[in-house]
Description:
Blueprint: H1 17-25, H2 29-44
Amino acid sequence: MGLEPGRVTDPAHGLTQNQMSTALGNGVLPLQAKFALAELELQTQPS
């Protein structure tokens, strides 16, 4: 998913299973942002 292990699931966070599922459902956003920025960089480079 792109997040380091335990980022959401570490028991120290005190999240319920439902809260973890909600947070992990949003975990794709960092990867989407990274991809989008890479694409923009490619498109703005001179040919």
